[in-house]
Amino acid sequence: MRTPFTLRLFQSMPRGGWIALAIFAAVAWIGVPVAHLALPESHPLHVFAYTVSLLGKILCYMVVAVAMDLIWGYAGILSLGHGLFFALGGYAFGMYLMRQIGRDGSYGAELPDFMVFLDWKELPWYWAGSDSLLWALFLVVALPGLVAFVFGWFAFRSRIKGVYFSIITQALTYAAMLLFFRNETGFGGNNGFTDFKRILGYDITSPGMRVTLFALSAALLIACLVLGRYLVTSRFGRVLAAIRDAESRVMFIGYNPLHYKLFMWTLSAMLCGLAGALYVPQVGIINPSEMSPANSIEIAVWVAVGGRGTLVGAVLGAGIVNLAKSVFTVYLPEYWPFVLGFLFIVVTLYLPDGVVGLWRKLRARRAAAALDDASAAAGAGLSAAIGGAPAEVPATERQAARSTADTPIAKGANA
Amino acid sequence: MLCVLMALAALPARAALDPALVQGLGGDFNARVAAIDALGVAGGDEAAALLDALEGGRLGTVDGRLVVIAPDGLRDATSGEALAADAGAATRITVNNRLRRAIGTARAALALSSAQPAQRLAAADTLRENASPALLPVLARALAAEQDDAVRAVLRYATAKLELASPDPALRLKAAQALGGSSDAAVKNLLAALLEKRGDGAAATWVEADAEVRAAAAASMRAIDRRIGLAQTAGTLFSGLSLGSILLLAALGLAITYGVMGVINMAHGELLMVGAYATFLVQGAFRSHLPEYLDLYVLAAIPAAFLAAALVGIAMERLVLRHLYGRPLESLLATWGLSLVLIQAARVLFGPQNLELANPSWMSGGVELAGGVVLPYNRIVILGFAAFVLVLIWLMMQKTRLGMFVRAVTQNRPMAGCVGVPTARVDTLAFAIGSGVAGLGGLALSQIANVGPAMGTGYIVDAFMVVVLGGVGQLAGAVWAALGLGIVAKFLEGWAGAVVAKILVLVFIIAFIQKRPQGIFALKGRFADS
Amino acid sequence: MIPTLEIERERAHLDAERENQREHWDGSAADGRVYRPGELDLSHKVILYLDDITVSFDGFRALNKLSLTIDAGELRCIIGPNGAGKTTMMDVITGKTRPDSGTAFFGQTIDLTRLTEPEIAHAGIGRKFQKPTIFEHHSAFENLELAMKADKRVRRTLFASLLDDERDRVAEVLRQIRLDQAADRPAGLLSHGQKQWLEIGMLLMQEPRLLLLDEPVAGMTDDETERTAELFTSLAGKHSLVVVEHDMAFVEALGGKVTVLCEGSVLAEGDLATVQADPRVIEVYLGR
Amino acid sequence: MLKVDTLNQYYGGSHILRGLSFDVPVGQVTTLLGRNGVGKTTLLKTLMGLVPAASGSISFDGRDITRAPSYKRVAAGIGFVPQGREIFPRLTVEENLLMGLATRPRGSAIPPRIFDMFPVLKQMMARRGGDLSGGQQQQLAIGRALAFGPKLLILDEPTEGIQPSIIKDIERAIRSLAETGEMAILLVEQYYDFARALADQYLVMERGEIVMRGAGADMDRDGVREALAV
Amino acid sequence: ADTIKIGILHSLSGTMAISETALKNVALMTIEEINAGGGVLGKKLEPVVVDPASNWPLFAERARQLLAQDKVAAVFGCWTSVSRKSVLPVFKELNGLLFYPVQYEGEELEKNVFYTGAAPNQQAIPAVEYLMSEEGGGAKRFVLLGTDYVYPRTTNKILRAFLKSKGVSDADILEDYTPFGHADYQTIIARIKHFAAEGKKTAVVSTINGDSNVPFYKELGNAGLKATDVPVVAFSVGEEELRGVDTKPLLGHLAAWNYFMSVDNPQNKAFIDKYRAWAKKNAVPNADTVVTNDPMEATYVGLHMWKQAVEKAGSTDVDKVIAAMGGQTFKAPSGFTLTMDATNHHLHKPVLIGEVRADGQFDVVWQTQQPIRAQPWSPFIEGNEGKQGL
Ligand SMILES: Nc1ncnc2c1ncn2[C@@H]1O[C@H](COP(=O)(O)OP(=O)(O)OP(=O)(O)O)[C@@H](O)[C@H]1O
Ligand SMILES: Nc1ncnc2c1ncn2[C@@H]1O[C@H](COP(=O)(O)OP(=O)(O)OP(=O)(O)O)[C@@H](O)[C@H]1O
Ligand SMILES: NC(N)=O
Ligand SMILES: [Mg+2]
Ligand SMILES: [Mg+2]
């Protein structure tokens, strides 16, 4: 008998996960809006506009991290170009925001300021329809999706793997960055898009809009997590992981890795695009530096900090790193790179499976302590091993078990 | 004015300087230029001394009177008598480019009578570029007296350039023919001007009336064009190779730490930085302790840069990376952290600004090919240095046991231990060597580009591209990739500009990997794809 | 100099021949056959044709004009010295290695040299590798589930859920390969022999028409070897099997026709006793 | 030569080796038999220092090596042929053999008897290890372990994937190595006939314990073959 | 509160740290100086230093935090135009006050911003006029070379229009751009040489920004392009940037600013001494070789003018301070008395043109007699006709 889809969607996450999500949703959709809109500033529980936008921004980063984890953690494809998809989504929505400025720009013209300044008399063709929210939303998903699909199609078809794939994604985003820096490209050059005024006519700086964007970001994150969780627990997810571990073997049992990778890759890019679209109105600017190679590497770093291949880890990693950055650039403006740098080193040395790995280890240890004889310890270790967190296994053996699942870069290195 | 100058030129070379003429130096801008020109034509030691004083900022005016500002007080510029007023009373005459150029030409005119052929040659070269018609007699005199063939040749060009404007068609013809041996674009323009027409339609007349001169000019132009074209192609090729050698030096260390050892070393750029900073410190030490040998600081920096980076590498390896072998993912994260730390450490210790590193004199300037194409010495030296480092690494990896051990350890660490290789020691040593080579890269880069805390971030992307494009673990691949990218980039840049060229190079890399998904030197064989 | 010339001439010749054949194939209407992947056509009772296959690596000929046919339902043993080309032959059949020349047909109509690995697998050829290759991070159960015969396109796997009979089938195979106790262990942690079994299990789940087994009993005890032999003989008839082994006892237990490969081509063929008596086989393979 | 005393080993929580004790005397072939997954390979890995022993001791040549790193064990004279070949795929055959001389002084030559035993290695000197066929790789792994002239040779299923004639050669070679009286040999085998033909002493393992032991000549009588069946 | 908070929003890490760190230093020094003089309205100033890390969204976030959380009275910060553009909406929304100390491309005017750096007509245009003058070498052909982003592109657009108005034809202008961080100037220098050899007197106008300058000047020196032949005038190269270059081969190349460290007057001497002392006291790396430059002076001037305006307004209230800022004057280290324009929020500034000396300082070879008024809306850009103040 086939289990109904909704039930399977529900089963894809453990109960604890659903409870955590529900709490998160309650806080994001009710707690924060109330605390921001209804409580007076003097109230100790008031959530400041600053905090709302900061958290909103971080939520968008978390979505990107989840998208990255889907493609890296579960499909073993390390993208060093995800910043591009994020930025494309941002630019697609930014075009709409620019059009919404209307005649309120510096030049009081119908065209965005930077075009007036370039002596352009009309919108270039690729701006057509950008004043429609629907079209903008379509582009937000379609543009990164299309770029990813075309790029992925050629790359996966040529069987580009591992570090070779990583490097060309980096080249792609780098090239796009240089292209967008040019004024002639028609996206405002280095200054990018800023000074947004409204969405659908509503003031973008109003508390209501701020909270709405925040809540939407939270919704997107929840949707991504549920979707991601479903994907990785489905047979599709198992095939993907199998491709990651032994691609040629997968082919010999009849799956075509090209289609699997391409699907996940394109989906991941689209999620990034959505995140970018929500990010731009919340931070108020999009410029080509979002496409810089270092930005994309950082996305990978978030995921690694949290724990690759766990989804939750990606969320935690993005949250921890970005919060740390936001906090320490304020409190330790001249020394925060030390703090962050050491954080990364300590995580790698002492938390080999990221923050999530630590949590699992602690849980395994607690379970072991609860039953206080040797065989119980054995059971716990075993369950840890079975649970996919072989933290208890001696290092050399863990390496052996991992050898085929090495990251793409390792494969490149050992190839 | 021209006549005045002509008249002046006829004066005997050693005549005392006309005070009126000299006072012009204290006058308005045009008067100064005129005075300098005149000094050049007049010649003599006094004129030279005055020019020196002017260029050195030691000439000033006190109440309109021209004075030389000496450490011990003021002296009148013409009479040399000491003045009572103290040095602060004088208004210094500022020298700007325009004056400096005039001074240069005047100096060259003076130097034509130098006893040293080398000085005369340099002077003739300057005049060839800048001589004004006023100097034609000086040139003619010098040419008549000149014995040295090389100097004569240059002088003849210089004269010919001026003679193109001569009223005598025969002289013009000779000049036009003589200039065919030049490879100077400016000369070409002079000739081209002769072939233009003045006026409109039927009424138009040739600038150069004489058909024979025109034909000679056209022939000479073609000859110059050919020479310039050749030199420019050679120049572009050289710039490509040079860029390639720089990419290679930036990438070689990584070719070991990443390519061979498999550590995704995001702190590679910072190892380059360590090498460059070590070079800076060596330069500083030479400046303060061995100023007379300052030119050799770069050589002394070779071991210093290597060791400094190697030590940092050893520390990195011992403290962090050693726990991460076989976990390349984690090495990405940890080295990213290390890179943040190293950059900020440099900022805190040395400040955020760029550091000044001077090319030693033997690395300054360049050899000039035809047509103004210059191959700078620093780039030539770096090209050679890249080859040197490359050979060193190649010998190390291919010809020593250590190289074999390193390769074996990365391919199968546990098994390498089981045949008796002390894997930990080999790792440290190999990482130290890779880091040291990165330090050498930093040394080389310091001679071309800026040295600052974040300098490494500019190279890390390129370095990874080179190593990967070549085929990971393939030293030869890295060489081809670096040189190939350099040359492609330079030819594209000449054609499309730097920005578009850079974009095209990246697109080229993407397309190239489609054709060769494992880099230029793909590993073939059954183990490669499993 | 001369040898290379010769090789080149030969290669040119082969190329020409291949070109000829292409022409012949393209004129598919002429003989009424369709050379495209599709239903396996066993009208001639032959499941695999290898004809004149040559594979070389940097001038070294791993396969040298190899020709071989396997009948439908047959159990064929391939033996031969180390380096004879047995594994390479399987690489060619499964699309991993493209032959320099020669043809490989699955049934009457499927040209293997034109298909990709997944297409070949889909057409009904399954393979067990010489070095056991399984998905180390997946449990033994999941390994089998993935291998299971099913629609393997993305849009199906996205929504696929395990049916009860499928679950039973996996459980049955797990018992068969004695891994029911280790069903949930990550396969990477299994011992060498257990991995061998798991890979055989995956092949069973795949239900291919043709099974290629490269040294399936290496690392198994004699007792397990016997069981494997029983398993394979029971499969024969419904499936076709090609087994590569160096264990003569096992080959004997299988009892099928034996082909001896040597230096990339067939040296001898026949039942085991005949082949074992062949002095050339003794010389290059069995030893004294 | 090698003395193992109440050795224990765990993977995570599962007890894989349970208090093993045995000797490997010099000049003899000791064969270790056992079904799949009983822990034979784990034992050998522990002997080589690839996994640390949880408790118990290992001594070699009178010296305690329980905690020594792998390379020191090799330097002390232990040669190892692992299960699954584990050759260095991107090194050439020659380099793989030279790796076997890692503990010898620089410039040591590969002893010619390796090529006498495995002529194919000589033909394929310049080919990369990973390109060899399975059986060729196995031969290379044995050659590599023999290259430096170990005092103790540990072999994990060395006949796997090797053609019959060469198995016979290996059998003869191991015999003669043991008979020189200077070498101890510990052989893990599934291939009963081969094990029996070589064994001076045998051990049978089950679930991490040695359940039978005796002289090689008594293997048939003791019913070792039957013990290995389910 | 008994202190007034001042936000300092300069990148201390990332690509811009190289330039902006010194601005943070000089702001802190000026605050100390003001506090030593009794503070403002009897209150001490309290600097709030944050690091936006050369990351534009982070600039906006930090700006919001300074204004909304820390409630700073004014913010001194930003260097790149994009960072300014990124914080602008925040300043407008929260009605904050930003002092922007760097020369920029103009085409902007905001009530909440005071621009203490130069607009194009206070730097680029006079520099080109100088090059065209007989004294400047009488250049007839121009290479407009820049980093590929908005400031150079805009500046060059203005310059092109200006040159056209002076009768320079398009054929005599070569415009070329390099990406950020470009480090290989061989091709460009060869092209300049070729262009210069083709005819009349040529000059290069460089809007190359940041790290590219070192390789550019090194290549320039080694390729033998001397200032006497083809002078290069730069708008983004000051004393701080020249610390990283061996200036011997660069003798005579030019820069146009509103201030040079080498300017000789009592205000400047005091400014430099104060900064040196501050650097020593605060253990700034290489404290004995620190230099001052134009944006540093602009920061210094800006802080002092803000102080004066607050005192005039008697409050730190933003609207009152804005009103009081107009017409403020300050005797600046450049030696001129600068005035804040009430209508366009830009300083009236003198233009100084300097030639590089061997010691990394500049010799002023030309300067305006008076400070000149900024034209943020360049008349050389179409559509700006009639645009004046706020
Ligand atoms: N990629 C390659 N490059 C070079 N030589 C290769 C390559 N692949 C296979 N060979 C060679 O081809 C020959 C055939 O190898 P193959 O693996 O097919 O042998 P086999 O019959 O399976 O041997 P075994 O019984 O040992 O498994 C061997 O000599 C091997 O060294
Ligand atoms: N890294 C590991 N972590 C956990 N369990 C492991 C690990 N490696 C092996 N095992 C388990 O330990 C047991 C012993 O494995 P080992 O490889 O030693 O068996 P073996 O006797 O060599 O078997 P075979 O004859 O199949 O090679 C097996 O049940 C195996 O599943
Ligand atoms: N405003 C500038 N120099 O970017
Ligand atoms: Mg084989
Ligand atoms: Mg085993």
From TrEMBL, chain A:
Membrane topology qualifier: Multi-pass membrane protein
Pfam families named in the record: BPD_transp_2
Keywords linked to the UniProt accession: Cell membrane, Membrane, Transmembrane, Transmembrane helix
Gene Ontology molecular function terms on file: branched-chain amino acid transmembrane transporter activity
UniProt-listed CDD domains: TM_PBP1_LivM_like
InterPro entries: ABC_transp_permease, ABC_transptr_urea_perm_UrtC, LivM-like
Protein name per its UniProtKB record: Urea ABC transporter permease UrtC
UniProt keyword annotation of Transmembrane present: yes
Species assigned in the record: Thauera phenylacetica B4P
Gene Ontology CC annotations of this record: plasma membrane
PANTHER family in the record: HIGH-AFFINITY BRANCHED-CHAIN AMINO ACID TRANSPORT SYSTEM PERMEASE (PTHR30482), SLR1201 PROTEIN (PTHR30482:SF4)
UniProtKB/TrEMBL annotation, chain B:
GO molecular function terms listed in the Swiss-Prot or TrEMBL record: transmembrane transporter activity
Keyword list, A-Z: Amino-acid transport, Cell membrane, Membrane, Signal, Transmembrane, Transmembrane helix, Transport
GO cellular component: plasma membrane
Membrane topology summary: Multi-pass membrane protein
Transmembrane segment boundaries: 237-259, 296-320, 332-350, 377-397, 463-489, 495-513
GO biological process: amino acid transport
CDD domains: TM_PBP1_LivH_like
Signal peptide: 1-15
Location(s) in or outside the cell: Cell membrane
NCBIfam families: urea_trans_UrtB
Family to which this protein belongs: Belongs to the binding-protein-dependent transport system permease family. LivHM subfamily.
Record's protein name: Urea ABC transporter permease UrtB
Naturally occurring in which organism (per UniProt): Thauera phenylacetica B4P
Phylogenetic placement of the source organism: Bacteria, Pseudomonadati, Pseudomonadota, Betaproteobacteria, Rhodocyclales
UniProtKB/TrEMBL annotation, chain C:
GO cellular component, one term: plasma membrane
CDD domains cross-referenced by the UniProt entry: ABC_Mj1267_LivG_branched (cd03219)
GO molecular function, one term: ATP hydrolysis activity
Leader sequence segment: none
Keyword Cell inner membrane applies: no
Tagged with keyword Nucleotide-binding: yes
Residues in ABC transporter domain copies: 48-288
Short name of one Pfam family: BCA_ABC_TP_C
Alphabetically ordered keywords of this record: ATP-binding, Nucleotide-binding, Transport
InterPro entries assigned to the protein according to its UniProt record, in alphabetical order: ABC_AA/LPS_Transport, ABC_transporter-like_ATP-bd, ABC_transptr_urea_ATP-bd_UrtD, BCA_ABC_TP_C, P-loop_NTPase
Protein name: Urea ABC transporter ATP-binding protein UrtD
From TrEMBL, chain D:
Protein name, as recorded: Urea ABC transporter ATP-binding protein UrtE
Protein origin, superkingdom: Bacteria
InterPro entries: AAA+_ATPase, ABC_transporter-like_ATP-bd, ABC_transptr_urea_ATP-bd_UrtE, BCAA_Transport_ATP-bd_LivF, P-loop_NTPase
Organism of this sequence: Thauera phenylacetica B4P
Keyword Membrane tagged: yes
Keyword annotations: Amino-acid transport, ATP-binding, Cell membrane, Membrane, Nucleotide-binding, Transport
Lineage, opening ranks: Bacteria, Pseudomonadati, Pseudomonadota, Betaproteobacteria, Rhodocyclales
Family of the protein in this entry: Belongs to the ABC transporter superfamily.
Database matches in SUPFAM superfamilies: P-loop containing nucleoside triphosphate hydrolases
Domain ABC transporter stretches: 2-230
Gene Ontology biological-process annotations: L-amino acid transport
GO-annotated molecular function: ATP binding; ATP hydrolysis activity; branched-chain amino acid transmembrane transporter activity
